[in-house]
Amino acid sequence: MVFRTVAYPAKKFGGYSRVFLLLNPYLLIIIKLRLKNWFRPFEFSFDFASFDRVYPERGRGTPFGFAQGRQDRQDMAQDKKLMKSKPRKHRGKNTQGRRLFITFEGIEGCGKTTQINLLKRYLTLQGYDIVLTREPGGTAIGRKLKGILLSPENHQITPGAELLLYAADRSQHMEEIIRPALEEGKIILCDRFTDATIAYQGYARGIELKLIERLNRLATGGLKPNLTILLDCPVEVGLGRLSQRESSRWRGTSFKDRLEREGIDFHQRVRKGYLKIAEREPRRLKVVDAGREIEIVQAEIKGLVSRSLEKN
Questions:
Q1: pLDDT classification of 241: cutoffs 50, 70, 90
Q2: Is 87 left (phi over 0), alpha (psi -120 to 50) or beta?
Q3: Alpha-carbon gap, residue 111 to 233, rounded angstroms
Q4: What's the pLDDT score for residue 96?
Q5: Does 124 lie in the same domain as 273?
Q6: Domain presence at residue 80
Q7: pLDDT class of 280 with cuts at 50, 70, 90
Q8: What does the longest C-alpha to C-alpha distance in the chain come to?
Q9: Distances (CA, A) of 113 to 11, 42, 84, 187, 293
Q10: What is the rounded CA–CA span in Å between residue 17 and residue 36?
Q11: Residues 151 and 26 in one domain
Q12: Do 148 and 222 belong to one domain?
């Protein structure tokens, strides 16, 4: 018996490959030959807005957010794999009802947004129920207050008014987001909390610390985080990251908020304030060197969170 084999050349794919179909009554083979690269792991569409949130310090070169260099492409490939992965529960671990309140603190440009998003993704894959929130702006009312607090147009706002607006945002945030989530046994990851008010409005603005502590107790009902991760880096490094982020966006447009536009002396006082809080509460507040590579910082954070989960 004689069988016919027919080859059908297909169109080029990306300018570097052809597909040939070899057909006969018993065999269907698809051979894909790559003429430029044998392995291209990054052929997928990517949400660049998500990239901006997770890797805000990475220079992108254009206002549209294209990745630069091999490391960024590897991170993007890993993100795609994580997005497709299903949450898994480890044997012997009770991931349900593990209430834990974790806050992230640090000066501007320290990398909080990057690290808190990476931690959320990691814990979600471990099967934990995560609530990711922030101050200011964790609620609908909070977002309106955030617009007032951080808009560069409101440069005339007084330190006292600033303090009270943060307290109002926190009170709403507690009743609407944090307290219900803790009652449901969830893990809360919060970008800034009471320590930020002490550092910014207390040590940097010069408002009496006892007054701030009383307002914090009024807004939170005395609740404190189980773990606070302070991402610490020199002010020059943090502000340099902000400048790099600005240069990668549209020319002639500044996206810095009102606090980011403060002078270097202000940010130095904020950093010193955070470190003083860490000296006063070393069991709760852990200082992490944020001047290192993102992966190294994230590994240390995972270790701190794992130990907290074992205790609770």
A1: confident
A2: beta
A3: 9
A4: 56
A5: yes
A6: no
A7: very high
A8: 97
A9: 43, 24, 22, 17, 15
A10: 8
A11: no
A12: yes
> What's at 267, amino acid-wise?
H
Backbone angles phi, psi at 275, to 5 degrees: -65, -35
Task: With a cut of 70, say whether residue 49 has pLDDT above it.
Answer: no
Determine the pLDDT at residue 244.
76
Residues 152 and 247 in one domain: yes
Average pLDDT, the chain: 77
C-beta neighbour count of 146 within 10 angstroms: 20
Domain that holds residue 33: 1-39
Residues 218 and 117 in one domain: yes
Q: What is the pTM assigned to this prediction?
A: 0.69
Q: Would the pLDDT of 190 be above 70?
A: yes
Residue 250 pLDDT = 56
User: Strand, helix or coil at 101?
Assistant: strand
Question: What is the CATH number for 272?
Answer: 3.40.50.300
Six token digits for residue 71: 């490391």
Is residue 196 over pLDDT 90?
A: yes
Tell me how far apart the alpha carbons of residues 121 and 130 are, in angstroms, rounded to a whole number. 9
- Are 191 and 106 in the same domain? yes
Structure tokens at 310: 């074992």
Cβ neighbours of residue 194 under 8 Å, at least 6 residues apart? 170, 216, 219, 220, 224
Rg for the chain (alpha carbons), in Å? Answer: 25
Return the half-sphere exposure (C-beta side, CA atoms, 13 A cut-off) of residue 41: 12
Looking at the structure, tell me whether residues 27 and 105 fall in a common domain.
Answer: no
Q: How many domains does the chain have?
A: 2
**What is the CA angle 167-105-133, rounded to 5?**
65
Listing from the earlier edge strand, what are the strands of the sheet with 17-24?
A: 6-9, 17-24, 27-34
Q: At a CB cut-off of 8 Å and minimum separation 6, what does 274 contact?
A: 105, 106, 107, 195, 199, 230, 232
pLDDT at 154 over 70: yes
Name which of 77-86, 126-135, 139-148 the model is least confident about.
Answer: 77-86
Q: Please tell me the predicted confidence (pLDDT) of residue 173.
A: 98
Q: Does residue 64 lie within any of the structural domains? A: no
